[in-house]
Request: fold
Amino acid sequence: MFDPIGVSVSNYEKSKHFDAAALAPLGHAVVMEFGGDTAGLGAGGKPDFWLSQCASLAPAHSAFTAKDRATVGAFVVDPDGNNVEAACHAPG
Reply:
């Protein structure tokens, strides 16, 4: 288990809103911000997924555990090409 995960983004505000919406079904929200270019998203007030504005980018993949198969939604790609997945490994 990774804790935390961090990704670089080219447009902080756009990515913050995109990822907050994409992770909302998993109970994640923006819980911390620093300097107007870094945000920590998480569930229960604990940030475990960090976004930071950066001039040089390489796309990343992040997967989050969903509580059940019904919560698993689309595999999404953010504005910088980072992809975010919700996964459930419980037996079908």
Remarks:
- Helices lie at 12-23.
